[in-house]
Write a structure and sequence with these properties.
- The protein has about 80 residues and is mostly helical.
- The protein starts with 8 loop residues before the first helix and ends with a helix.
- About 80% of the residues lie in helices and about 0% in strands.
């Protein structure tokens, strides 16, 4: 990777990693692997908070929402 422009290295490695995950998902031919691949690729493209909320919605985890409300309240008391 020494020949890649230094400012492009992180983007190039991220794109290469996403391409490897997509290729593995297509060859796996399994719905769970496709679903996992979507989460892995989404992790590379979006923020982690979005994926945490999406996982809480899919798993119907009420404890996460209580934790999130408590966490935001503690942040607001520290800032205010």
């Amino acid at each position: 990777m020494a020949s890649i422009i230094p400012s492009w290295r992180s983007h190039t490695s991220r794109v290469a990693g996403i391409m490897v995950v997509v290729a593995l998902c297509f060859t796996a031919n399994n719905a769970w692997v496709y679903f996992g691949g979507i989460f892995i690729v989404a992790t590379g493209l979006t923020s982690v908070e979005f994926l945490e909320k999406l996982a809480a919605i899919i798993t119907r985890n009420p404890g996460y929402w209580q934790y999130l409300i408590g966490h935001e309240e503690s942040l607001s008391t520290k800032l205010g």
